[in-house]
Amino acid sequence: MTAKTLYDKIWDAHVVHEAEDGTCLLYIDMHLTHEVTSAQAFEGLRMAGRPVRRPELTVAVPDHNVPTDVGRATGEISDPEAKLQIDTLRKNAADFGVTYFDVNDVRQGIVHIIGPEQGLTQPGMTIVCGDSHTATHGAFGALAHGIGTSEVEHVLATQTLIQKKSKNMLVKVNGTLPLGVTAKDITLTVIGKTGTAGGTGYVIEYAGEAIESLSMEGRMTVCNMAIEGGARAGLIAPDEKTFQYVMGRPYAPKGAAWEQAIAFWKTLKSDEGAHYDKVIEFDASEIEPVVTWGTSPEDVLPISAVVPSPDSFKGGKVSAATRSLEYMGLKPGQALKDIEIDTVFIGSCTNGRIEDLREVAKVMEGRKVKDGIRAMIVPGSGLVRAQAEEEGIAQKLIDAGFEWRMAGCSMCLGMNPDQLKPGERCASTSNRNFEGRQGRGGRTHLLSPAMAAAAAVTGRLTDVRELS
Ligand SMILES: CC(C)[C@H](C(=O)O)[C@@H](O)C(=O)O
Ligand code: SF4
After folding, report:
1. In what order do the strands lie in the sheet with 233-235?
2. Which residues are noted in the entry as [4Fe-4S] cluster-binding (predicted)?
3. Smallest-distance ligand from the CA of 381
4. Which of 212, 357, 372, 431 is the most exposed place for a label (fewest CB within 10 A)?
């Protein structure tokens, strides 16, 4: 028997048909949908008079457009486009018999947060969503693809996806993470090494002691950004931690089905000697807390570094870096630690989970948000929010000077009222720092929740390890 990678195993278990050119029809176990990329897909079905093939394997939740002010529970959504998209999702879910968590349901939240939280995300599954950060679910050893709207329609109609197999890449992070270094620093460091195109054509499996040592939340943070490194998906082999996380969640298997599931899940790891087309290996001790300085997630450096000179790059990156620095309002040679910020955003599907909020609370212990800094915390789901309130974290963060908001994508992207003004600079725990991502003219520095908290305290990018 040939040795297989985890990716090979999940793939093989889901191929319904393989054409001569290698194009496959893949069975899909779980289909998550949100308001931005599903409307046309449902409409396509309606026009063709087709039902959703497996409505019980399809879940819908509004996240991108929802306002996150606490008043939303009682008020109308004022932006007509957002309101239309959310109303449409609600109607589509009702018409097609799809499970739907409405705006003010405590289970509402960012689609990639609620999947794992509800136990919809399970090891060995194929999961799709019309959203690039679907890679997040790979943290459970699920093959999770982001798909486009026409593919959403295809999956709704057939519960299958047309795919060609990607190549296998192994990213192995050995050793122990230094103090103050987190999952976000790992994933940004990997992208710094490979570039945003380094993963193109691959599915990345993350392994090694540093990955194994991460909590499920941390593993989700790592896989979430696989897509920013160009990969088709990210994967981490499930283990005891994974099983413990899934156990007892609303949609997790129960009783005998649970025992059966566990027996299968335990087989989900790459075999000894399995072939990878590319291997990247490095030691966790190399990783420092990092921040981005430019307008691509690969523009990342340790916090101790200075803003690079465009001349230090090669080829097209020279002009890209020049443009980035101009947009970001930065000068080569400037210490990253000297960069002053106006806003701190803690949230998104990268870092909007309970552990992230605990991390922020830990850094804020005995400290306050600096005067004049707008610091917002947007829990990734209503349940994360409720848990943080129950743990007393929410009150501590409010007392420290943070805004405590309702769940949604929020300032991760400018599709709702939470936006930067032109020229405003934000320390953000999200995953994309593209031009205009957080609002037109807004400037984004990506970093970990601990580093974002440190920036909130000092009003500039700060090494969390040096906070006095
Ligand atoms: C709006 C949606 C299609 C988009 C994505 O696919 O990733 C968004 O979630 C993002 O993060 O940019
Ligand atoms: S939180 Fe950000 S990255 Fe995640 S799905 Fe929403 S917009 Fe996309």
Report:
1. 233-235, 202-207, 167-174, 278-283
2. 349, 409, 412
3. 2
4. 372
